[in-house]
Specification:
By secondary structure, the chain is α+β, with helices and mostly antiparallel strands. Helices cover 32% and strands 27% of the residues.
Length: 301
């Protein structure tokens, strides 16, 4: 098979590991920077060009689209789909999962456990918004934030009002969520491939840090999931339409609650914490699924 990894940096751990596994399984691999791709939009013969050459005869692609280039990156993925190339995660699913508000609305509609969440444009009724999510302490998030950036824990109502007003002063869209204190600054990253959780780790924030992101100094260890947690993670990925997803959830007093569904989950933390060959599992899934014309939009937009 001829497989392309859509990634800006071939040296990244996740990109490198998948490239190694593709070669180890006897396939041909190409790492393609999506920002260097350019396309012809045509009904008869859509094409993608890269560094002066047309990209042809790919069997599958693995999108590793960074949040900052979601718009152009998903356009490139969509073009491959128009050319009947199998994408392990489809463009519409990636776009859906990147919109934090939209993804929460879709999960809520299907009855998935979530922290109580508020969203508003105006700061005129900030106190009422804070009350709606159960009052302080609460978590305030920028919609566009990633890896724990743009996430603030407000310990008091006054602090929450100040942060909300500051974010709104930046013309930023914000989410306000109840703080799940019983999680103790830890979350679970469930790595979903197809219809099963293939690996899971517990991420614990550093001392005095409520965010558990490994990029912010958190540490990871292998996690044992309950059947309910496994089912919740798989359902969340399916609702987003993702074949490969990193589903982040918290253990609350009322069961697992979803924090985020990531369409380009990193491999370094999960492989090192669990000692599992997750990259190899992704390639195994592609070998079973990648057939011409197999790409189709899953779920509702």
């Amino acid at each position: 098979m001829k497989i392309a990894i859509i990634s800006r940096n071939p040296k990244l751990y996740s990109t490198r590991r998948m490239a190694e596994e593709i070669v180890a399984k006897g396939h041909e691999v190409h790492v393609i920077d999506p920002l260097l791709c350019y396309m012809t939009i045509a009904s008869q013969r859509p094409t993608i060009h890269y560094k002066g050459e047309e990209l042809t005869e790919f069997d599958a692609i693995i999108p590793r689209i960074g949040a900052s280039i979601t718009f152009y990156g998903t356009a490139v993925v969509r073009q491959f789909e128009m050319m009947n190339v199998y994408s392990i995660n489809e463009s519409v699913a990636i776009s859906r999962s990147r919109d934090k508000l939209r993804s929460l609305q879709l999960l809520a509609r299907k009855g998935i456990g979530l922290p109580v969440t508020g969203f508003a444009h105006s700061t005129k009724y900030t106190k009422d918004l804070i009350t709606l999510v159960g009052g302080a302490p609460l978590v305030i998030k920028l919609l566009e934030g990633t890896q724990g950036i743009g996430v603030v824990l407000a310990e008091t109502g006054k602090a929450a009002e100040s942060v909300i007003e500051a974010f709104r002063g930046l013309k930023a869209n914000i989410l306000v969520q109840e703080f799940i204190k019983e999680a103790g600054g830890a979350d679970l990253r469930c790595f979903v491939i197809g219809d099963k959780v293939v690996a899971a780790m517990k991420r614990q924030g550093g001392e005095g840090e409520f965010r558990s992101n490994l990029h912010r100094g958190g540490n990871a260890s292998i996690a044992k999931l309950t059947p309910e947690e496994r089912l919740t993670a798989v359902r969340a990925a399916k609702i987003m339409g993702l074949n490969v997803a990193g589903v982040d959830l918290l253990r609350s007093n009322h069961g697992p609650v979803i924090m985020e569904v990531n369409s380009s989950p990193g491999l370094e933390g999960i492989e090192k914490a669990t000692a599992k060959n997750v990259a190899g599992m992704i390639i195994d899934f592609i070998e079973k699924q990648a057939k011409p014309g197999k790409t189709k939009t899953r779920g509702k937009g």
